[in-house]
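[PROTEIN RECORD]
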Amino acid sequence: MVNRRWILGWAITGFVVAVIMSITLLVLWNVYIIGDYRTISHLSQSLGDLRNIHPEHRDPSVRWVIVAMGSTFFTVIITALSLFFAAFLASRRYQRIQTDWLATTTHELKLPTANIQLFAQTLQKTGLGESDRMRFVSLILQETQRMDGLVTRILMTRRIEGGMQEIRMENIAALAWLESCRKRIASPAFELEGVREARVRVDRRQLETVLDNLVHNAHKYGDGSLPRVVVLASDGFVTIEVRDSGIGVPAALRKKVFKRFYRVPNREHRRRTGTGLGLYIARSLVKMMGGTMGVRDNPEGKGSAFWIRFKEVV
């Protein structure tokens, strides 16, 4: 960390010095060219004599051409330096995000791995009752599912960025489909209400991935109450909202939360585990299905309402 700050500090200092030197040189260039007209006149006369050109035939606009060329040259230098510095800062920021994500992901993998090892070692002991044995087996399955979910998100991110994610569109009744999702044993619980007639054209499997992600987040960042999934229809669009009563998302960060690896930088959010890939995957899948996605304040009180919107199928 110290080396990175030292390198970045030198880069910023070098950039500032280069810009100041370029601006100073540009100002001196213009002052010299415009102010010292006598020198230019003698120089032009000498060149004219050498070329057998009479002074009265010389074009007086040459002086301004020289000024324009010099100004353009140094403007290009300043612009190039600015672009280089902006690219450098973006690269450093991306590297920092990747490093933080790698540390978080390593922790996410290490914890369930350690738990599985501990539970398995416990199962090897003699004298365990059947109820205790089944409990440890259930815990091992939970940790395995947790690891599988993390690996699945990483692989899906790779498929999305590589353009390899398949989309198979079909027409579905939004509310009826959500009711079937709620009945699944592995699905996180949620309350449901909305317009029964609303129909959309989506990929059923990918939309299920989006819904699971949003409902899991609602449980993770909520206050313990069940999330509410609401289906709305108006102006030719169908909106599915997942509402929670949790800590919410600050208004200034509502666009950033959908970026890859991004996590809200406050204590309440950092206390919850995560890799910063879930919302990125969800928005990418919604976009691939022709929809839009965003977040707003929960209209029913505290918390957030993550929404996905598609054109209504008549």
